[in-house]
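Researcher: Go.
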Amino acid sequence: MDHDRYSDDYIADILEASRVIAMVGVSANTSRPSYFALKYLIGKGYTMHPVNPGLAGKDLLGRMVYADLAEAPAPIDMVDIFRNSEDALAVTKQAIALREEKAIKVVWMQLGVRNDEAAELAEAAGLKVVMNRCPKIEYGRLSGEIGWAGVNSGLISSARPRLAPKGVQSHLIRSRR
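Model: Structure:
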């Protein structure tokens, strides 16, 4: 797979199929991107399992924080890695080892995180991989919501986004096709 570019369909399929996400490397610091992404994805209806050994056992945004993936409850559809590129390999290896037990289907590496060895191992194990992308940003881009903040989503359309049952802040990802 070409990890320099992902089709909108590939990303949308992952975001629609993944309802439970383990976010590895989440921070309790409210000004950190991982905290904001966690809060956003919770607001979009995803079940989030924060993973950070330094915060294990504590409550973060109403969610129990786990020390590692092995402690997080199954199923886990996606492992979202908020660690550096070198650490992504170890997290990916743990996700591969737990893929059947936890029903893991996707390894997602955040913006600035790329580890081709980890991607190769994950794909060989049958997992989908995304690198150097943020699910929060991709959700907003594909739903059209990111345009509300004046960000160019790269989509030109006169069609209004269809709203999900939860209201104005919850768009359907497929609404822009």
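Model: DSSP finds five helices and seven strands in the chain.
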